Amino acid sequence: MSNWLRVNRDSPIRWLNKFGTFSIILKNAGAIPKMIWVTTNEAKTQFLKSGNIRVAMADNQGQSEKIISLGVRAIDDYTVQFTLEHAKASFPALVSTEAYRPLPRHIIEQYGDEWTLPQNIQTNGSYRLAEWDKGNRIVLTKNPDYYEADKVNIRKVEYHIVPENSIGLTMYENEALDIIGGAVYLRLPQTEIPRIQTDPKLYKQMHTGEQACTEWYEFNTQKSPTDNVLVRKAIAAAIDKQLLIEIVIKGSQIPAMSLIHPKSFGAINPNEKVGIQFNPEQAKEWLKEAGYPDGQGFPKLVLLHNTSEAHRKIANGIKTLLKHYLNIEIEVRELNWTRYNATIKPLQPMSQNSPHIFRYSGCVKYSDAINWLGLFHSSAGLNWLSGKNSELFDKTVDKAIFAAAQVKSEELSRRAEQILIEEEVAIIPLYFRNARFLVKPRVKGWYNKAFGGQHIRNWSLEN
Q1: Is the pTM here over 0.85, yes or no?
Q2: Residues 6+ apart with CB under 8 A from 383
């Protein structure tokens, strides 16, 4: 870290503070169970295991283990040394995420949980937090102490927290916003896309870019009839993803045959044709082999999604495809996010209310296959693989995490995904999510980033 990085003119950040970040995170995390994927304090501790940072543990009264030493050492004021359990080619990308960013230890110790309030917070970036009207607006102002403050062109940035994307679009068209859109937060209203695409003004302001996000459906592999892998294969082979994107989603998404985004370490090359391909005739054969020729005698399935216009359309599109190609009935249900999340995490597979199929998605902040595969490790709470395949998947993911060579790690990651999507067919990858944005012409220097956030310091406004 360079010696120009400071929270203000009188307080340069040194690696003592950086190490303090780790100390505080570990103090807050407390005891860590014996598992690779931490489910309770994931935001505070995941970087240790996923980054392969060396950790020494000690018994904590028989309940779990506590950390007694950590492979992070401040060599001097501006140099830190990480000691890893094994080589990890994606570690530099991991270090760019927020868990590794330097924080002002003295401010955190002084104010505790209130250190992020506008009157307390000290930051080292190109902007400072000037105002935080919770639930409504965040205002950032240019940081005069930033090392390249003379190159920061925009004096003030306002983030508006808008409850509905239709309201956001109205604000944009009324010149109240300069940028709207994205893949996670305030997406452009799906119903307005055709109008935007035909509007000569808005069309020129629309941008589409890749996001490190995957959308998929998961099977309840323990509840009949989806406990039969042939049924799962038949359903997967009967879903025309390209048709869903073109007719139902009406978007620029990319059909996904795999879970892991193609630009990630360990991703399967799309040309390898891994996974269950769209093949209606093969789907009918698998369903017949499972004991349901032409869908005869097939029980009604329940497909569950969280409340969303887009998810509702996709679910009903899948319902139509399965009726058309397999002659099976799907009951589509939806729940608000709180109830939905409580229903599937953890899933009670044999419960009367548990679905046979349900939607999920994931976005990652750095490019490593383990980000996605780790979701399905049995210690993560999202593992619905069955029997020996579950054990084999876990072992393969564990080996990929601790493989000394990146080539070996990628090979193991590809093998783990093959188990997940082709042999076990625990999930159906639908598409890799692209994001649409509307950006005013006066904003210069803006560009899409699949991983990480935007660098507003590089933007400018045209008068």
Answers
A1: no
A2: 376, 377, 390, 393, 394
The verdict on residue 175 lying in a domain is no
Given a contact cutoff of 8 angstroms between Cβ atoms, the answer to whether 344 and 427 are in contact is no
pLDDT of the residue at 42:
40
For residue 438, give the H/E element and its range. strand 427-439
Helix (H) or strand (E) holding 170: helix 165-173
**Measured distance CA(247)–CA(345) in Å, rounded:** 31
Q: What is the pLDDT of residues 240-254, one digit of tens each?
A: 999 999 988 877 788
């307390």: which residue's tokens? 120
Q: Shortest CA distance to 165 belongs to which of 186, 192, 194? A: 186
Quick: pLDDT tens for 20-57: 555 544 444 433 322 222 233 343 344 455 556 766 55
CA geometry: angle at 44 spanning 38 and 48, to 5°? 65
- CATH code of the domain covering residue 51: 3.90.76
Of 85, 100, 117, the position where a domain reaches its end is 117
β-sheet bridge partners, residue 140: 129, 157
Q: What's the rounded Cα separation, in Å, for the pair 210 and 432? A: 8
Task: Please tell me the total number of residues recorded for the chain in this structure.
Answer: 463
Rounded Cα–Cα distance for residues 43 and 294 (Å): 48
User: CA 428 to CA 202: how far, in whole Å?
Assistant: 34
